[in-house]
Amino acid sequence: MDGTDRRIRVLIAKPGMDGHDRGAKVVARALRDAGMEVIYTGLRQTADMIVNAALQEDVDAIGLSVLSGAHMHYFTEVMGLLREKGADDIIVFGGGIIPDQDLPRLRELGVGKVFTPGASTEDAAEYLRGAVRERWQQQGEA
C-alpha cells in the first residue's frame, strides 16, 4: 500500500488529572469522520502511557487535549520521550486552554499545531492531512 492509500492513524490522549474529555471525544469523532483511524486512550494518561500507546499503535500523529493548565509539562514530557525512543517523526498537535504566549515555546519543542477553543475540527483534519502526507513524502512512503 502506498502513502496515497494508507489511512492516517491518530492517537488522541488526555494527559494528567483533568477529567473533562468532551472536546477530545469531539475531535476524535471528527477525525474518524474525516477518514482517519483514531485511537482514543481515555482520561488520566501519563506521558509514558501516551508514547507507549503511540508506538504500539504505529500512529502518524498524537493529539493532546489539555485543559488543566499543565500543557507545558505534558507536551515537554511527550516530546522528550518521543525523542528518547527514536520516534520524533510522530507529529504532535494539541488543543485545549493554552495561552497564546505559550505557543512559541510549544513550537520550539516541536509541537506542530495547537487548536484553541473556537478552532474547527475541519481545520484539525486538514492540518493532519497536510502534515502527515508531508512526513510520508520525507520518509519516502508517499
UniProtKB/TrEMBL annotation:
<dbReference type="InterPro" id="IPR006159">
    <property type="entry name" value="Acid_CoA_mut_C"/>
</dbReference>
<feature type="domain" description="B12-binding">
    <location>
        <begin position="7"/>
        <end position="138"/>
    </location>
</feature>
<keyword id="KW-0846">Cobalamin</keyword>
<dbReference type="GO" id="GO:0031419">
    <property type="term" value="F:cobalamin binding"/>
</dbReference>
<dbReference type="GO" id="GO:0016853">
    <property type="term" value="F:isomerase activity"/>
</dbReference>
<dbReference type="InterPro" id="IPR036724">
    <property type="entry name" value="Cobalamin-bd_sf"/>
</dbReference>
<protein>
    <submittedName>
        <fullName>Methylmalonyl-CoA mutase, C-terminal domain</fullName>
    </submittedName>
</protein>
<keyword id="KW-0170">Cobalt</keyword>
<keyword id="KW-0479">Metal-binding</keyword>
<dbReference type="InterPro" id="IPR006158">
    <property type="entry name" value="Cobalamin-bd"/>
</dbReference>
<dbReference type="GO" id="GO:0046872">
    <property type="term" value="F:metal ion binding"/>
</dbReference>
<keyword id="KW-0413">Isomerase</keyword>
<dbReference type="Pfam" id="PF02310">
    <property type="entry name" value="B12-binding"/>
</dbReference>
